[in-house]
């Protein structure tokens, strides 16, 4: 809302100052959060001289054979590449197609509302349907939302903008449950590693998951810009792109979103193999195994 001028062009000369101010606000928020965080479970770490040496090759091999970890990692990779790529094309869409760049920030915020809507009901949803089942269904809803965005008559006017927002609201409802449960799926993947391979590698499993997420966050915006350029986008024209190029952006955005959610459906529905029944069995087996080890 504040980085575009009245001609829908970026305020390039003011971007550094704006980013700096936002960064300071973010830092203050982080410090507030850290200061008010309480450690509820304090674990004592004991170093053992005779402990087996950590083997990074073996740990990585365990990760790639850990289907829940691979599935729970592949899904956000697809999300970030599609979402960040679509966001890059989406900025051009709002600049050159809808001729209203400032409203793009408000529309973009819609996707976060799903977390607030589903947060109070997550435990009930999981208990009733299961995590895998819930996130897979949510991904299907998102995919359908972007199919609608492709086929509906989204014209460069207020009516078309309204249809675009409607599709984003539907996607928000589908993606909200996944946003609430994504990190919980990684916790289950870490338990699966212990269940399947007999060793708990929390740090390595999480580090590899985080690494691939960060990699996707870098690829996504670049891919979106490359595709936009291939479709005729000329950065020197800023918001004054031709209607042909603007129309291509109107289709590129849903295509990138749709592609990412198709991969997510495969990641959650096929690769991630901890359905409700299997998850319950794993938790029961680990509980029994740990009880024996304590004796």
Rg, Cα atoms, Å: 22 Å
Indicate the low-confidence ranges by residue numbers: none
Instruction: Tell me, briefly, the overall form.
Output: elongated
* SSE pattern, N- to C-terminal: HHHHHHHHHH
Could you tell me the strand content as a percent range? under 5%
Tell me the structural class: mainly alpha
Total helices: the number is 10
Instruction: List how many beta strands DSSP finds.
Output: 0
Mean pLDDT: 90
Mind describing the biggest β-sheet? none
Helical proportion, percent range: over 70%
How far do the termini sit from each other?
Answer: 61 Å
Description:
The protein is mainly alpha-helical. It is built from 10 helices and no strands. The mean pLDDT is 90. The chain is elongated, with a radius of gyration of 22 Å. Helix 3 runs antiparallel to helix 7 and helix 6 runs antiparallel to helix 7.
């Amino acid at each position: 809302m504040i980085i575009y001028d009245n001609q829908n062009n970026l305020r390039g000369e003011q971007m550094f100052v704006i980013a700096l101010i936002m960064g300071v606000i973010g830092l203050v928020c982080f410090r507030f959060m850290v200061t008010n965080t309480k450690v509820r479970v304090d674990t004592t770490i004991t170093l053992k001289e005779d402990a087996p040496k950590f083997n990074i090759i073996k740990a990585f091999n365990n990760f790639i054979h850990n289907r829940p970890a691979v599935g729970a990692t592949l899904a956000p990779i697809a999300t970030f590449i599609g979402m960040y790529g679509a966001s890059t094309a989406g900025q051009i869409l709002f600049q050159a197609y809808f001729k209203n760049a400032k409203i793009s920030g408000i529309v973009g915020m819609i996707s976060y509302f799903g977390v607030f809507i589903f947060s109070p009901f997550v435990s009930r949803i999981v208990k009733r349907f299961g995590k895998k089942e819930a996130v897979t269904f949510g991904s299907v809803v998102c995919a359908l939302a972007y199919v609608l965005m492709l086929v509906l008559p989204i014209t460069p006017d207020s009516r078309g903008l309204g249809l675009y927002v409607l599709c984003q609201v539907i996607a928000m409802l589908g993606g909200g449950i996944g946003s609430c449960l994504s990190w919980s799926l990684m916790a289950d993947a870490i338990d699966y590693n212990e269940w399947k391979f007999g060793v708990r590698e929390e740090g390595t499993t999480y580090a590899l998951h985080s690494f691939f997420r960060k990699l996707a966050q870098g690829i996504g915006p670049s891919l979106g810009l490359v595709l936009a350029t291939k479709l005729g986008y000329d950065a020197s024209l800023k918001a004054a792109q031709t209607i042909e190029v603007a129309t291509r952006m109107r289709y590129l955005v849903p295509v990138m979103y749709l592609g990412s959610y198709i991969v997510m459906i495969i990641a959650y529905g096929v690769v991630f193999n901890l359905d409700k029944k299997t998850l319950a069995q794993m938790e029961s087996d680990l509980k029994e195994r740990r009880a024996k080890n304590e004796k």
